[in-house]
Design brief:
With 187 residues, the chain is mainly α. It has a single domain (17-35, 46-169), classed as Regulator of G-protein Signalling 4, domain 2. The protein contains nine helices and no strands. The chain is flat.
Length: 187
């Protein structure tokens, strides 16, 4: 007969919760990437040349919708998706024209990514965090520039090289090469 969860040691419950969380994140990233593969127009999938060009720079990869999706899935699997989410939020923020929307978006981005209690807190140093906090008091399109540069640099030197060695990227590369070879045979 089952004694119930309350009879288990607390460290077992904590470990089980941690495993469950990691499993949910892994399954979500796999589902997201599979959905992208199925739903995207085949023309938006990278050619083998495009996928190889992603090795040239993080910018080239992020400029391609499929590259961005693959990188995001990879970051999610490494529990660092907040970095690309923050970077994308900043890119969107810079395009905002209305001062009212600028102020509300600035507060939202700050509370979601910069604040020490933020649910998706990004890893930036104290000086950058403090400068950004001051900038948000008088929002301008450039108020997140320093923090965004730090996160971009972190992704570029840390996550991006690992992505290029990852199964996610290698699968995209192999799939695009297979698609290119198939298309040549039928042409």
């Amino acid at each position: 007969m089952c004694r119930g969860l309350s009879s288990l040691p607390s460290n077992c419950l904590e470990r089980a919760k941690g495993i469950k969380t990691r499993l949910v994140i892994f399954l979500q990233s796999k589902r997201d990437f599979t959905r992208i593969k199925k739903s995207e127009n085949p023309k938006s999938r990278p050619s083998s040349d495009e996928a190889r060009k992603w090795r040239e720079s993080l910018d080239k990869m992020l400029a391609h919708p499929y590259g961005l999706a693959a990188f995001r899935a990879f970051l999610r699997s490494e529990y660092s998706e907040e970095n690309i989410e923050f970077w994308l939020a900043c890119e969107d923020y810079k395009k905002t024209k209305s001062p009212t929307k600028l102020a509300s978006k600035a507060k939202k981005i700050y509370s979601e990514f910069i604040d020490v209690q933020a649910p998706k807190e990004v890893n930036i140093d104290f000086q950058t965090r403090e400068l950004t906090r001051k900038n948000v008091l008088e929002p301008a399109p450039s108020c997140f520039n320093d923090a965004q540069k730090r996160i971009y640099s972190l992704m570029e030197r840390d996550s991006y090289p690992r992505f290029l060695r990852s199964k996610v990227y290698l699968d995209v590369l192999n799939q695009s090469q297979s698609n290119s070879q198939s298309q040549r045979r039928f042409s």
